[in-house]
C-alpha cells in the first residue's frame, strides 16, 4: 500500500496542455507574429523636380503663370524667381496674377500691377528701367531683397536672340 507522503503516480501529474494554456500560447504566437511581421513598405514622398538654372526669354517665361499645372515664375531685375509657393498671390485669380510669367520689375518699382507696367513686346528688348527715379529704384531693391529671401532664383531673363 502506498504511503501518504510518497509522490503521486506519474499519470496524475497535471498536463500543461490545457485549453487555457493553448489559448495563451496562441495569443503569444500571434503577438510575436504581429511584432515581427514586416512593415508595409513606406511610399516615399515624390522628390520635387530638380531646379536647373537656365536662361529665359520673355516668351519662354510667359507660360509659367500657374495655368495648366505650370509653376509660377516671374522676373525681378533680370532674375527669374520660382514664386509657386506664393501661388495665392501670383497664381490664376490672385491679386498679382499679372506678374506671373512676366518681368515684374517696373510694376514693383511703381507699386502698380497695372497691365501697362508689363513689357508689351515679348520679342523686343528687355525693359531697361532707366527712367526710374531714386524712390522707385529703392522700392524695387526692397522687393528684390524680399524675393531673394523668400524664393528660389531659377534663371536669368534675357532678350529674344541673346541665347
Ligand atoms: C490695395 C492695396 C494693397 C493691399 C491691401 C495689399 C495687400 C498685401 C498683403 C496683405 C500682402 C501679404 C504680405 C505678407 O505676406 O507679408 C501683400 C503682398 C504683396 N503685395 Fe500687396 N497689397 C496692395 C497693393 C499692392 C500693389 C499696388 C502691389 C504692386 C506692386 C503689391 C504687390 C505685392 C507683392 C509683390 C507682395 C508680396 C507677395 C509675396 O510675398 O510673394 N501690393 N500685399
UniProtKB/TrEMBL annotation:
Domain annotation Cytochrome b5 heme-binding: ranges: 56-158
UniProt-recorded name of the protein: Cytochrome b5
Similarity comment: family membership: Belongs to the cytochrome b5 family. MAPR subfamily.
Transmembrane portions of the chain: 20-36
Entry's localization field: Endoplasmic reticulum
Pfam families per UniProt: Cyt-b5
First-listed, main subcellular location of the protein, grouped into a coarse class: endoplasmic reticulum
GO cellular component: endoplasmic reticulum; membrane
Species classification: Eukaryota, Fungi, Dikarya, Ascomycota, Pezizomycotina
Keyword terms, alphabetized: Endoplasmic reticulum, Heme, Iron, Membrane, Metal-binding, Transmembrane, Transmembrane helix
Example GO molecular function: heme binding
Amino acid at each position: 500500500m502506498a504511503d501518504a507522503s510518497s509522490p503521486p503516480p506519474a499519470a496524475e501529474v497535471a498536463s500543461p496542455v490545457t485549453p487555457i494554456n493553448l489559448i495563451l500560447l496562441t495569443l503569444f504566437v500571434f503577438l510575436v507574429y504581429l511584432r515581427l511581421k514586416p512593415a508595409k513598405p513606406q511610399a516615399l514622398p515624390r522628390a520635387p523636380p530638380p531646379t536647373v538654372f537656365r536662361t529665359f526669354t520673355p516668351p519662354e517665361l510667359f507660360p509659367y503663370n500657374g495655368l495648366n499645372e505650370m509653376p509660377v515664375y516671374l522676373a525681378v531685375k533680370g532674375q527669374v524667381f520660382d514664386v509657386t509657393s506664393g501661388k495665392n498671390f501670383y497664381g490664376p485669380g490672385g491679386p498679382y496674377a499679372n506678374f506671373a510669367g512676366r518681368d515684374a520689375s517696373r510694376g514693383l518699382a511703381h507699386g502698380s500691377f497695372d497691365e501697362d507696367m508689363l513689357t508689351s513686346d515679348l520679342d523686343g528688348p528687355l525693359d531697361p528701367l532707366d527712367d526710374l527715379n531714386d524712390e522707385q529704384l529703392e522700392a524695387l531693391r526692397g522687393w528684390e531683397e524680399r524675393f531673394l529671401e523668400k524664393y528660389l532664383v531659377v534663371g536669368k531673363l534675357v532678350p529674344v536672340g541673346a541665347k
